Amino acid sequence: MEIVMPVPFPHPGERATLTVCRLRDEVGPVVAVELAGGVPAWLATSYDAVSEVLANEGVLYSKDARHFGALRDGTLPAGWPLRRAIEADHMLNKDGDEHRRLRGLVGRAFTQNRVQALAPRIEEIADGLLDRLAAIDGDSAAHGGGPAAGGDSAAHGGGPAAGGDPAARDGGPAAGGGGPVNLVAGYADPLPVVVICELFGVPERERDDIRRWATTLISLTSAPDEIGKAWQDLIAHLTAHIGRRRRDPRDDLTTALLQAQEQDGDRLGDDEILWILWLVILAGHETTVHLIANAVIALCADPAQLALAREKDAWAEVVEETLRSRSPMSAGLFRYATRDVELAGVRIPAGQPVLVGFGGTGTDPARFGAGAGRFDISRGQETHLGFGRGPHFCLGAPLARLEARIALSRLFGRFPGLRMAVPPEEIAYTPSWITEGPVALPVFTGR
User: Fold this and answer.
1) Where are the beta strands (DSSP E) in 298-435?
2) HEC sequence for 198-267
3) What pLDDT, in 10s, does the model give residues 157-205?
4) For all residues of the chain together, what is the average pLDDT?
5) 364-389: buried (b, 16+ CB within 10 Å) or exposed (e) per residue?
6) What pairs with residue 44 in β-bridges?
7) What is the mean pLDDT of residues 297-325?
């Protein structure tokens, strides 16, 4: 019998999406991997393999950690970093009727009309952030030397000021020298934070805290005690916010979730609403930041594509092509085999976790041909898995698409000469195997 030796995932020193693609091309569509703490798992790397897993959620594969063999038999390390996330009692970890009930109630509150009504406000937020970027000197004029892709805290570090002046606090001193600015800290990061917080009715003074907690929870470099503290603080904050909205209803999504009701009178409980807010903050913020930033990198690397986007006003196509070929998701959290299954010719025993390698699906030559890795907004409506598929298709997809489309059109409309301040190979990416995007993005605005 052939012995399959698992490979470490993420691979030290390699971006997670590059690892997924390399394993897809060199090993196959399903690869045995070992996660931190020596936890064995399987990684689906190809379009077809990932699609098959997603299509069979709730049948051959479950999102419920009660199917996780290592959790059942006690071999999962007690301090494993992702243990809290997989055991949390939220919609992402449910299947079947329970999942359909929660999704239906959320859908009654998080409507297409509510999302589209946000467009004018998103445009205002984007324009305000761009005003601040336009007033910034880059760090090269103020501090000397060239831009650092992940280094100088004055130009590239620090968290965004989601409610204040993120560009001024993170991008350098004010006005006049035309040096590089950090587009992540000054634009791509604060934009979705402000949008999500306004959507939920979170006061401006609390937004920096929410962003900091979310970043700590999703980063692979966070220490266990930091994760625990951020988890407790975020849960306590959301609990208090829900209580405020129950006492003082407003025209926001938190109130709409509290008031959502099925025809049989079923409503969401406070704990269920808490986990919905938690999910949207963590998933809806980080991935949208990366979607915007990854699109900027792709467009700046290909002036012809940028010119086409401008000429055709094809920013929606830019968003879809970024989701396909520059996915902000490297790998999605676990599905557990509910029985012994065969996936792409590989036997996966019951109870073992499967990661879905979203980062490898859009550039899979077997699905998109020899030029799968090329960024091309004229491809047309080719089906990608950027927001998943099946029962757990991303509920926030319309909002993410809207935010990214507005962010890109406003950015390149305001700064037609925008260009990268460092070569693409010098960009530092997030230390995560779940999401992927630049930690910092130094650009010249060309003003």
Assistant:
1) 332-337, 341-343, 346-348, 353-356, 419-420
2) HHHCCCHHHHHHHHHHHHHHHCCCCCHHHHHHHHHHHHHHHHHHHHHHHHCCCCCHHHHHHHCECCCCCE
3) 333 333 444 443 344 333 344 689 999 999 999 999 999 999 999 998 9
4) 88
5) beebbeeebeebbbebeeeebbbbbb
6) 30, 356
7) 98
Q: At 85, which amino acid appears?
A: A
Q: What is the DSSP letter of 419?
A: E
- Strand 442-444, strand 419-420: pairing: antiparallel
| Calculated CA dihedral for residues 363, 367, 370, 375, nearest 10 degrees | -40
Answer whether 248's CB lies under 8 Å from 241's CB. no
pLDDT digit string, tens, across residues 97-134:
999 999 998 988 888 899 999 999 999 999 999 999 99
What angle separates helix 397-414 from helix 315-325, to the nearest 10 degrees? Answer: 120
Residues with Cβ within 8 Å of 367's Cβ and at least 6 positions away in sequence, in order, are: 46, 47, 48, 361
Sheet containing strand 181-182, edge to edge, reads 181-182, 442-444, 419-420
Phi-psi region of 121 (alpha: psi -120 to 50; beta: other; left: phi over 0): alpha
Identity of residue 114: R
d(CA 254, CA 264): 21
pLDDT-derived band at 139, boundaries 50, 70, 90: very low
Beta strands in 11-139 (DSSP E): 30-35, 39-44, 61-62
The reported pTM is 0.89
- The long-range contacts involving 347-350, CB below 8 angstroms and separated by at least 24 positions, are 348/30, 348/42, 349/69, 350/67, 350/69
Which uninterrupted H or E stretch holds 182? Answer: strand 181-182
Which CATH number is 7-444 given? Answer: 1.10.630.10
Distance separating the N- and C-terminal Cα atoms of the chain:
65
Contacts made by residues 366-375, CB under 8 angstroms, sequence distance 24+: 366/46, 366/47, 366/48, 367/46, 367/47, 367/48, 368/47, 368/324, 372/325, 373/325, 374/325, 375/298, 375/301, 375/302, 375/305, 375/321, 375/322, 375/325, 375/326
pLDDT over 50 at 352, yes or no: yes
Percent of the chain with pLDDT over 70: 89
Whether the Cβ atoms of residue 343 and residue 30 lie closer than 8 Å to each other: yes
Per residue in 244-263, pLDDT (tens digit) is 999 999 999 999 999 987 65
Name the residue ranges covered by the structural domains of the chain: 7-444
Show the CA angle centred on residue 436, arms to residues 285 and 172, nearest 5°: 70
Burial of 200 (0-12, 13-18, 19+ CB in 10 A): buried
